[in-house]
Amino acid sequence: MTFLCTSVLGPHYMSTSYYPAFVLAQRIALGGFVERVEVLITVIWFITIYFKITVYLTAIIYGVGRLSNLETYKPLSLPIGMLMVMLTVLAFSNTAEDLFYYRYIVSTLSLMIGITIPSALLITTIIKKKKTRIQRRRR
């Protein structure tokens, strides 16, 4: 999709467009009788967003239930779902804030998490290996 958008729309228009795949779909016309392909992309987009949110919500509810040592995670579904709905309404007041957040803050957070978590896992693995080697030598 990135290659198609770059080759059809050009790099400048693709970098300035908020949804370049949607703009690309608006330009598609097959033989004069297949028009409005962007509707298909919109439907696919909504379906994928629905499943992504469902997976995220299920993972959050299941994770909080496991951290809380609950027998069942079902009582957490309504409160966490309500919090998720409220956060989506309160997160950004306009599109400019949303764009700023995803362009600058998320990229920084992703970089930090992408370095911090693997480094912590590597350090703990090294420490565990050293401890097991020391315990084997003592035997």
Sequence of secondary-structure elements = HHHHHH
N-to-C terminal Cα separation, in Å? 59 Å
Largest sheet: none
Count of DSSP helices? 6
Q: How would you sum up the global shape?
A: extended
Low-confidence stretches: none
How many β-strand stretches? 0
What is the percentage of strand-forming residues? under 5%
As a whole number of angstroms, the C-alpha radius of gyration is 23 Å
- The residue fraction in helices comes out at over 70%
Q: Provide mean pLDDT, rounded.
A: 85
From the helix content, strand content and strand pairing, which structural class follows?
Answer: mainly alpha
Task: Give the topology, please.
Elements lengths: L1 H8 L1 H6 L3 H7 L11 H30 L9 H14 L4 H44 L1
Helix pairs in contact: 1-3, 4-5
Give an overview in words:
The chain is mainly α and about 140 residues long. The protein contains six helices and no strands. It has helices at about 1-10, 10-15, 20-25, 40-65, 75-90, 95-139. α1 packs across α3. The radius of gyration is 23 Å and the shape is extended. It starts with a helix and ends with a helix. The mean pLDDT is about 85.
